[in-house]
UniProtKB/TrEMBL annotation:
Signal peptide: none annotated. Residues 190-276 form the Peptidase M20 dimerisation domain. Keywords: Hydrolase. The lineage of its organism: Bacteria, Pseudomonadati, Pseudomonadota, Alphaproteobacteria, Hyphomicrobiales. This is M20 aminoacylase family protein.
Amino acid sequence: MIGFEIFRDLQREATEWRRHLHQNPELDYRLPDTAQFVAEKLASFGVDHIETGIAETGIVAIVQGKGGDGPTVALRADMDALPIVEASGKPWASKKPGRMHACGHDGHTAMLLGAAKHLARTRNFKGSVALIFQPAEEIELPSGGLKMVQGGIMDRFCISQVFGMHNRPGMEIGTFAICHGSIMASQDDFDIIVKGKGGHAASPSGTIDPVVIAAQIILGLQTLISRKTDPRDSLVISVTKLKAADAYNVIPDNVEIAGTVRALSSELRDFAEREVFASAQGIARGFGADIEFIYRRSVPATFNHAKETNFAITAARNLVGAASVDDKVRMSMGAEDFAYMLEARPGAMILLGNGPSPSLHNPAYDFDDEALAYGIGFWISLVETVLGSERIRT
């Protein structure tokens, strides 16, 4: 078993890096200072190659092992923050009004930097490690993960496997969680415009009221899950926007409905796109109205591949012991654009405990620096597990 205590010195450095990044959050692809900070640290560690400007501000760095030829395994961290006003009250709180690291990407970046420093110093593996620092995880269409894949990083850097890690509030510090198959859901969004016939609110009989129709559609969408899908399947359809008239006494011509769909399989995504349209159109036409329907597919489900999931489980157990690794965690209906990388190459996403912190995307959230040593240690353990460091120690 690898004791995480050997990473305590790196944790102290990583804490400084993490808090610097936390104080200086940047959004989406606009990460010039963050990218420069990461690139300068990587250069100081003596990694073999650094390529910047991928998907605007993304970075890929290569560390070659001393054990000879072998595959290239990629480790990924996201770097962007969120447009949220911070309320953590920490001394290292954001200095940028209206921006904060509310999802722990500052911690993810610091952990991968810590792993990069250790790997560049020891090189105790065969093949190479590609360190992916990704922008724009928090936005859709196109997100940073998609743009980096479309930019050809998997082929350009000969990546054979790819791994990601995300912190999870509510899990104890020093624990990990993972599962085979889908660990996070896909994300799709839809817009429905109900087209009726407006008029005076005092004379509804002379209208085809799109407000009433919209209400029926919203309720009808919920029965798609309760009556048309297997209760053992995981599907979420949530209506999150509703826009009608701006006056008390007006029945509008149109009403706008919007929402999101989360699913754990491509079959459920297909079902949702088909049935949301059919249900909304059928209800509207039953009242003499019609609809305009837009369905946008965004992030696919985050799917952990079997062999790579087993590598991650072994690496985590080697670090903290089997009792601190949940290898059958329940999947989340949240979405993660690391899914695009897992579509391009086999790999896995693992969850790291962040203790009893506020939830992700909460203004009071903060990444717990005590988790840094465990995250750094996991990356090192994973590289040694996949690339066979034990065979070159003698």
